[in-house]
Design goal:
heterodimer, A: 114 residues, mainly beta, 6-stranded mixed sheet, globular, B: 116 residues, 7-stranded mixed sheet
Chain lengths: 114, 116
């Protein structure tokens, strides 16, 4: 069964500092990986996704993520955090043909100090 | 471009009452999903459907039923609500995987349900 672990429940960074949110997955085949962001009281917005090819993926709002197969990781990064980035971030794993489900991690809440 | 629409957005139920949450999508997607979100638990899959007239259980199906009578609608029912079902419910839809260009989930904005 596929699973996702986000080791950090809550992270606090200062505005302008760099950010890295960790995600580790478990999946028997080639994973398709996603990062979503959820602002308070809102739905989920897709930040970026990885299917294959270049292991460094660029997303919206200046985010990027790097797929490392050897470490089963898909960490999200941003070089300079803005106060508006405060939200909850979810990593998810799915697959293509033959699997129907998207499995989410428990989320990392990001707080930004002005 | 409505995408995925969930109704209602908020609801308060008494224990033992029943209700139905409606999810409607206008993208002609084959697959539809119901998730629940609880603090510290992420999103957990309740039920899903891979086509009109078909449904399947997800990770946490107990206490819920679903129906997919029309391709564009996916209904989630609570026959006898319990306080443990207090949660935020999200619906999502997508097309079957054909290639990476079409692979993506679209989520609704959620239904916040409180059972007292």
């Amino acid at each position: 069964a596929q699973s996702v672990t986000q080791p950090d429940i809550h992270i606090t960074v200062s505005e302008g500092a760099s950010l890295e949110l960790r995600c580790n997955y478990s999946y028997g085949a080639t994973p398709y990986l996603f990062w979503y962001v959820q602002s308070p009281g809102q739905g989920l917005q897709l930040l970026l996704k990885y299917f294959s090819g270049d292991t460094l993926v660029q997303g919206i709002k200046g985010f990027e993520a790097e797929f490392k197969r050897s470490q089963s990781s898909f960490n999200l990064r941003k070089p300079s955090v803005h106060w508006s980035d405060a939200a909850e971030y979810f990593c998810a794993v799915g697959s293509g043909a033959g699997s129907y489900q998207l499995t989410f991690g428990k989320g990392t809440k990001l707080s930004v100090i002005p | 471009n409505a995408g995925v629409t969930q109704t209602p957005k908020f609801r308060v139920l008494k224990t033992g009452q029943s209700m139905t949450l409606l999810c409607a999508q206008d993208m002609n997607h084959e697959y539809m999903y119901w998730y629940r979100q609880d603090p510290g638990m992420g999103l957990r899959l309740i039920h899903y459907s891979v086509g009109e007239g078909t449904t399947a259980k997800g990770e946490v199906p107990d206490g819920y039923n679903v129906s997919r009578l029309k391709k564009q609608n996916f209904l989630l029912g609570l026959e006898s609500a319990a306080p443990s079902q207090t949660s935020v419910y999200f619906c999502a839809s997508r097309q079957p995987f054909r290639d990476t260009s079409n692979y993506g989930y679209t989520f609704g904005s959620g239904t916040r349900l409180t059972v007292v």
